Amino acid sequence: MEIIDLLSPEGVIPNLKVTSKKQALQELSKRGAEVIGIEEREIFHTLLEREKLGTTGVGNGIAIPHGKLPGEAPLSGLFARLERPIDFESVDERPVDLIFLLLAPESAGAEHLKALAKVSRLLRDQTMLEKLRGSDSAEALYSLLTEIPANQAA
User: Fold this and answer.
1) Residue 151 forms part of a structural domain
2) Which terminus of the chain is more solvent-facing, meaning fewer CB atoms within 10 Å of its CB: N or C?
């Protein structure tokens, strides 16, 4: 599984204007509803329930909110680069400026975990983070997120 399997060009938001964690999750739920065809309220509720278990702010300015949706929603992602960093109650207490949202069907077991691990690995790469933070177009961000590293290419 690659990021390109999770993310569509429409799922990239280059300059999301939000002032809080809740507002970020609302805006991402709205875009998720448009991109994958699941009701916005359902996505938002799923994300809030997951956040109650513990923050998905993983540190270094990154958040990876995720959750499982009822039904047969496709395994999919959204990416947002925030206009200004926000408090996301991150483990390192630093504000978040990059968010990768991951949604999976309830029936997804290992696939959901594999996707989460893939996103996590990608967003631990300092060079990648610098490039993402330095790009302000959806096309550039999508290209960066979905390129397959030369050492993994066929």
Assistant:
1) no
2) C
34: containing domain: 3-146
Tokens 């280059």 appear where?
14
How many independent structural domains does the chain possess?
1
What's the CATH number where 54 sits?
3.40.930.10
Domain assignment present for residue 153? The answer is: no
Which candidate in 47, 63, 64, 66 is catalytic?
66
154 inside domain: no
Query: Contact at 8 Å (CB) between 107 and 69?
Result: no
Q: Could you tell me what percentage of the chain is helix, strand and coil, using 3-state DSSP and rounding each to the nearest 5?
A: 45, 25, 35
In a domain, 52, yes or no: yes
- Whether 66 is catalytic: yes
Write out the two tokens for 58: 């993983």
Q: Which residues pair with 104 in a beta bridge?
A: 68
- Backbone angles phi and psi of 129, in degrees to 5: -60, -40
